[in-house]
Structures are given as structure tokens and as C-alpha cells.
Write a structure and sequence with these properties.
The complex is a heterodimer. Helices cover 85% and strands 0% of the residues of chain A. Chain A is mostly helical. In chain A, helix 1 runs antiparallel to helix 2 and helix 2 runs antiparallel to helix 3. Chain B is built from six helices and no strands. The chains are: A mainly alpha, B mainly alpha. Chain A: Keywords: Cell membrane, Ion channel, Ion transport, Membrane, Metal-binding, Sodium, Transmembrane, Transmembrane helix, Transport. Chain A: This is Fluoride-specific ion channel FluC.
Chain lengths: 124, 171
């Protein structure tokens, strides 16, 4: 059953990453990969809220599978992030590559912690 | 000047004219390919997480392996479809955006670091945090470099060659 929920969530998460990435890029004329940065940070926040809520039994495991493992898991990506970082470096945009690596990990981690804290604050 | 530079963003790069137009050319097929690919990738990731679970505070090997192997594969895939082979329209959306994007995950990585810290395993958290980043970036670079070597596409200075000359080789 869980695997079906994961698949369903991913069927939404993966196209959502593509559409959000496009929308963000259309608003920034920059080689910095803001689109991927945005989905990774947003997905980390939501997954943090879900995990924090699950720890307090406020969010059922099925919802974590659907929205966390499935949707957020497919919305966020390490392969795209990794490829972009290496390509920026290879193209000579080394500062962007370093900033992308540092900022993605820093902001993703920060929002995951914030999400868990938020869930604890809301649901105790 | 390169007629069409390899993209920076493998999901979609609006700097590449062909990708800018792809949503207009057939939205349903494109988004379906991404969704189906995403399901395949996410189910694979979930399967590995179930097969190799980790206790709170332990190093999350399953996600580590997923993210590093996915990074190796995106390096191979992107060199193949941007520098070697003029791939059919839905290959990148299905395999790159869908399968590999659904397989690898940033949110699980971030939450697992938080969970390790919360379990009092700061050292495992830090090792996982830095280890994934270093191994994943090395994997992308290795995948790209090995594929360029295997297909005879290595040129001095590390700059990838244009794919203009190879258009139509395979199609």
C-alpha cells in the first residue's frame, strides 16, 4: 500500500519540479539555478513539517509516504543539483558553483530544521 | 561560439531553444513522461530504503547510495543526450527529469541530517551531510568524464565540445 502512495506522490512531485523550475527560470535571467534551489528548499521545509508532525502522531504514516517520500522526494532532487553544480564549475562560473553547493545544502538543512520545529510548535 | 551549449539545468534550461519550446509542443505527453519516470524512480528509492533501513542516529546508507548513484547516472545521461546523441524529445524528460529526479532526493537528505542530530548523533549527521555532497559531485563529474572518454569526446581544457557536428549520427 505504501508503495502506491509513494508512486502517486511522485507522479505529482516530478512534473511539479519541472513546472516550478520553468516558472522560476522565466523570472530570472541568470545562470544560477534558482529553480532547482527553490524546489529543494521548499521540499525540505514541507518534509520537515511532515516528519515533525509524524513524530508527534499528528500526521499519519500514509500521509508521510504520499506527501513526504513520494511528493517531496520527487519534487526535490540531488541529481539535478549535482549536475548543475558541476556544469557551473566546468563553464568557469566557479563562484556560482560553490555558492550553489553551499546555499542549497545550508538552506535545505535550515528549512528542514525549521519545518520540524514548526510542526512541534503547532502540534506539540 | 557553441551553437547549442550543454544546459546547466538538466531538468529544463530555458537557455536552450529546443527546451524552451517543448511545453508548447505537447504538454500532456511531456508531463506524463515526467510523471511516469518520477514514479519509477521514487518507487526504486523507496524500495532501497525499505530493504536497507537505518536506526535513528545511524548513517542513512540507502539514501546516500541512491543520491550518489543517481548523480553518476545523470552525468552519463546528460553527456550522452547533449554531446553525443541527438536524443528523441521525451528521453530527457523521462529519464533525467522523471526517473533520476524521482530517484534522487534532497528533502530526505536534509530531513535525515536533522533526524541524526535530533538522535544525538552529530558526528554521523556531519559525516552524512558532507559525505553525500562530496561523493555526489564526484559521481556527476566521474559519470560525465568517463562517458566523454568512452565516446571519444575529451578535449583539452575540460570544455565540452559542441554537439552540432554529431547531429544526425544516430537518428
Amino acid at each position: 500500500m505504501t508503495v502506491i502512495l509513494v508512486a502517486l506522490g511522485a507522479a505529482i512531485g516530478a512534473p511539479l519540479r519541472y513546472l516550478v523550475d520553468r516558472a522560476v527560470q522565466a523570472r530570472h535571467d541568470s545562470t544560477f539555478p534558482w529553480g532547482t534551489f527553490a524546489v529543494n528548499v521548499a521540499g525540505s521545509l514541507v518534509f520537515g513539517v511532515l516528519i515533525g508532525g509524524a513524530a508527534g502522531h499528528a500526521v499519519p504514516g500514509s500521509l508521510v509516504a504520499l506527501l513526504g517520500t513520494g511528493l517531496c522526494g520527487a519534487l526535490t532532487t540531488y541529481s539535478t543539483f549535482g549536475y548543475e553544480t558541476v556544469r557551473l564549475f566546468e563553464d568557469g562560473a566557479r563562484r556560482y558553483a560553490l555558492i550553489n553547493a553551499g546555499a542549497s545544502v545550508g538552506a535545505g538543512l535550515g528549512t528542514a530544521f525549521a519545518g520540524v520545529a514548526l510542526a512541534h510548535a503547532v502540534w506539540g | 561560439m557553441r551553437p547549442e551549449r550543454p544546459p546547466i539545468d538538466p531538468d529544463v534550461d530555458l537557455g536552450v531553444p529546443r527546451q524552451r519550446a517543448e511545453l508548447r509542443e505537447g504538454r500532456a505527453g511531456l508531463l506524463t513522461a515526467i510523471a511516469v519516470g518520477g514514479m519509477v524512480g521514487a518507487v526504486g528509492r523507496h524500495g532501497l530504503a525499505v530493504a536497507f533501513p537505518h536506526a535513528p542516529g545511524e548513517f542513512p546508507w540507502a539514501t546516500f547510495a541512491v543520491n550518489v548513484s543517481g548523480c553518476l547516472l545523470i552525468g552519463v545521461l546528460m553527456v550522452l543526450i547533449t554531446e553525443v546523441w541527438h536524443a528523441p524529445r521525451l528521453v530527457r524528460p523521462f529519464l533525467g527529469v522523471g526517473v533520476l529526479g524521482g530517484y534522487t532526493t534532497f528533502s530526505t537528505y536534509a530531513v535525515e541530517v536533522q533526524q541524526a542530530v535530533a538522535a544525538g548523533a552529530a558526528r554521523a549527521a556531519l559525516l552524512y551531510l558532507a559525505g553525500t555532497l562530496v561523493a555526489a559531485l564526484t559521481a556527476v563529474w566521474s559519470g560525465m568524464t568517463l562517458t566523454r572518454m568512452a565516446t571519444g569526446r575529451v578535449i583539452a581544457g575540460g570544455s565540452p565540445p559542441s554537439n552540432a557536428g554529431s547531429r544526425g549520427d544516430v537518428e
